[in-house]
Write a structure and sequence with these properties.
Layout (H helix, E strand, L loop, with lengths): L3 E5 L4 H13 L3 E5 L12 H6 L7 E4 L2 E4 L1 H11 L10 H22 L1 H9 L5 H26 L12 H15 L8 H11 L2 H6 L10
Parallel strand pairs: 1-2
Antiparallel strand pairs: 1-3, 3-4
Helix pairs in contact: 1-3, 1-7, 4-6, 4-7, 7-8
Length: about 220
């Protein structure tokens, strides 16, 4: 197989990150929809578990095998297709970019995942209103911390510097999820400015959830 094949769900933040990176790199790929809710979740099918035993999206089928975990996939894209770069030239700047990205990927997004909220609802009997509060609270904490960090890092239109980096690739999907959960994004002007700059680029627009073939409109 020479063409990339992305296993994705339109509303998955992790899949959204990889789509942005693919678009920024100008890479063509086949889109394979994995519906996370239909029939109990297609990610749990035997066929998909053979690709990704973790039963999560995304997975990227490449000539070198199947890759999983969004940041690992994006790092592979960066190493195999280095232009345009998603990481800055200096070690210190790369560390800053990774810190911002990990704030979204490791600290915020896991707490809003369906697997977590389903456990809260089904095993701990937390009602829907409380789960909504849970999501908004944890997303808000993360975005507030990011806004403060951007006050030190952001000197251009994007999170770190004058062009999109891995930090922006991870921020935009979180902004989309925050809106879906009813978070007031006007609270954070630096994030709003960066989101606007990203959405002005074709790559980010093409990767948006509503533009995917499996999107529910």
């Amino acid at each position: 197989m020479s063409r990339l094949r992305l296993y994705s769900y339109w509303r998955s933040s992790a899949s959204h990150r990889v789509r942005i990176a693919l678009q920024l790199k100008g890479l063509e790929y086949d889109y394979v929809a994995v519906h996370l809710a239909a029939a109990g979740g297609q990610q749990y099918s035997a066929a998909y578990r053979a690709l990704n035993p973790q039963s999560r999206v995304p997975a990227l089928e490449t000539p070198e095998g199947v890759l999983t975990q969004s940041l690992a996939i994006i790092e592979w894209l960066e190493e195999t297709h280095p232009e345009p770069p998603l990481l800055p030239a200096t070690a210190a700047a790369r560390a800053r970019v990774r810190a911002l990205a990990l704030l979204m990927v490791a600290d915020v997004q896991p707490l809003q995942n369906t697997s977590v909220t389903s456990y809260l609802q089904e095993r701990l009997h937390v009602d829907a209103a409380a789960i909504d509060t849970w999501r908004r609270d944890w997303v808000g904490r993360g975005l507030a911390a990011l806004e403060a960090m951007l006050g030190r890092e952001s000197a251009g239109d994007f999170c770190v510097g004058p062009r999109p980096t891995l930090a922006d690739v991870c921020l935009l999907p979180q902004c989309a999820s925050a809106r879906r959960f009813g978070v007031d994004m006007n609270t954070w002007p630096r994030i709003a400015r960066i989101e606007q700059a990203c959405n002005a680029l074709d790559a980010f627009r093409r990767a948006a959830p509503a533009q995917q073939p499996d999107a529910v409109r």
